[in-house]
Design a protein that fits this description.
Low-confidence stretches: none
Number of helices: 18
Distance between the termini: 63 Å
Number of strands: 10
Order of helices and strands: HHEHEEHHHHHHEEHHHEEHEHHHEEHH
Strand order of the largest sheet: 1-5
Radius of gyration: 28 Å
Largest sheet: 2 strands, antiparallel
């Protein structure tokens, strides 16, 4: 009775009972790909919990100390307090190594789940109206998480993370006019400075997590709960009707089990598979470089871009502009994230499609979009593999220059070839779907006719299969601006737009 009275009193003052009642009955479509976002959310929960534990013991200071801990190989070695406290967490805090590795593995899963979730939304057209804002928030989340992963990776101040900070310093210095000032401000003096760890720590545990705690609920809860859930085409469904299970109790039980699975998998990985063994690398010394060092997978494409870029620089008014650093470090990721952010609006401009979409496309239904997506994946993959060109050269016993030129050619040719091949495959799959609708489904049964010939028995296509295989309705082509008497025909940009539209949703 007291609990009920308290709930009534809170609802009278703050409201929310109506929204909560509606939210409990919200239908969620049943498809495993819709749980990719939940995997990212629950990995973030593990990152937060383990990160709070680590902050109790980590000392974000670059003041030098002489290590006298339990790890014998480094006793008597001068190192920063950041590295010494990382060793203390690893070897002296109960459960410290497990929590450190859980934090690292959960971060990798977090970013991987975001990327996979983003790709699913891209290939199925889930970014279309009314979800453009949610798409932009997702792109911002990806950038913030990657940036925060780089900050956290650098905090232990070990030899491997120090190499990454050296690259960060070089990129900062290369910014025209203000680069040296930015580097002095960020690092607190000449590299490596005295303040970079403390400043990255503030960004890693305060600023970026604060932004994530605002954007993630907005992306995953508020906008999702206010909008109709997306679903794949099926018989009887349309953009206003959704088929699924209610949030309570079905989806709640399912998502709770997924939370436990994610936490369990992260704990298992941290227990069985070693990651980032900083005690083997030793403390960072600016004069020392570790051989064969590689960054985490999500920043590998930046490393590859730096390695592929030719040594191009020029001087303007006595100032050297290092394009060999600026282009791979700023232009390459800029193209990736700007392309992701602007794509929904570019597709809407090409197709003229401004309708509300709650039904998803199959990738084959929009060959041009699918081709662009695969081309982007190849763009990223080539740069990512190029980041290990020295490792590939050693293991395959070929010239380092040869690997570099192979990746340079693949960087140009690969995305174009990927687009062409993917588009042709999608068109072929569309033709097979049309054949299935017109002639029926192959059963695998072979019968012999009276004339002695063999034919395969085909059954008629069901209504459910027709709804699944039928291509979506094409958007109305954008109308050119009206031409009044005495005016010239539409400008070239409208003709180009019409030409792109005609080839966009080819069936």
């Amino acid at each position: 009775m007291k609990i009920g009275s308290l709930a009534t009193a809170l609802d009278d003052r703050f409201g929310g009972a109506g929204f909560l009642n509606k939210a409990m009955r919200k239908a969620f479509a049943n498809h495993w790909t819709f749980l990719l976002g939940e995997i990212a959310l629950y990995a973030f929960v593990v990152v937060l919990v383990t990160g709070v534990f680590l902050t109790f013991f980590f000392k974000p200071s670059m003041d030098e100390v002489v290590y006298n801990g339990v790890y014998a190989p480094l006793r008597g070695v001068t190192m920063s307090q950041a590295f010494a406290s990382s060793l203390e967490i690893t070897f002296e805090v109960r459960g410290g190594l497990l929590i450190r590795q859980m934090h690292h593995w959960a971060t990798l899963i977090f970013i991987a789940a975001i990327v996979t979730h983003l790709l699913r939304n891209f290939f199925t057209g889930a970014f279309r109206k009314p979800r453009e804002l949610n798409w932009l928030i997702g792109v911002v989340l990806l950038g913030l998480v990657m940036l925060n992963g780089l900050f956290g990776y650098s905090l232990p101040d070990d030899l491997l993370s120090g190499a990454g900070l050296r690259i960060l310093h070089g990129v900062t210095v290369s910014v025209p006019l203000v680069g040296t000032y930015l580097a002095m401000f960020l690092f607190g003096g000449e590299f490596p400075g005295d303040d970079i760890i403390a400043r990255l720590y503030s960004l890693h545990v305060l600023l970026v997590p604060g932004l994530l705690l605002v954007l993630i609920p907005l992306h995953a809860v508020v906008l999702t709960w206010r909008q109709t859930h997306t679903q794949f085409r099926a018989k009887g469904l349309n953009d206003r009707l959704i088929r699924g299970e209610p949030f309570y109790p079905v989806f709640l039980a399912k998502t709770t089990a997924l939370l436990l699975w994610v936490a369990g998998v992260v704990a298992l990985l941290a227990t069985m598979f070693q990651i980032n063994p900083i005690w083997l690398y030793g403390p960072y010394v600016p004069s020392t470089v570790s051989a064969g060092s590689q960054p985490d997978w999500y920043t590998g494409f930046l490393e590859g871009a730096l390695r592929l870029m030719p040594p191009w620089e020029f001087t303007v008014f006595g100032h050297t502009v290092a394009m060999s650093v600026l282009i791979p470090a700023l232009i390459a990721p800029g193209l990736l994230f700007a392309g992701l952010a602007l794509y929904p609006f570019a597709e809407r401009w090409v197709t003229g499609d401004r309708a509300v979409h709650n039904l998803l496309d199959r990738p084959r239904d929009v060959p041009a979009r699918t081709g662009i997506g695969v081309a982007g994946i190849v763009y990223y993959a080539v740069l990512w593999m190029a980041g290990a060109n020295d490792i590939l050269a050693v293991n395959f016993n070929i010239s380092l220059n040869m690997t570099t030129w192979i990746f340079r050619v693949a960087f140009v040719v690969g995305p174009v070839l990927a687009f062409v091949v993917t588009r042709r495959l999608c068109l072929g799959l569309q033709a097979r779907d049309r054949h299935t609708i017109e002639h029926g489904v192959e059963t695998g049964r072979i019968v012999r006719g009276p004339e002695g010939g063999f034919t395969e028995v085909q059954r008629p296509t069901t209504d459910e299969e027709k709804a699944k295989h039928a291509p979506p309705a094409l958007p109305v082509p954008p109308a050119p601006p009206p031409v009044r008497n005495g005016e010239v025909p539409p400008p070239a940009r409208h003709r180009i737009r019409e030409a792109i539209h005609r080839s966009w949703n080819s069936h």
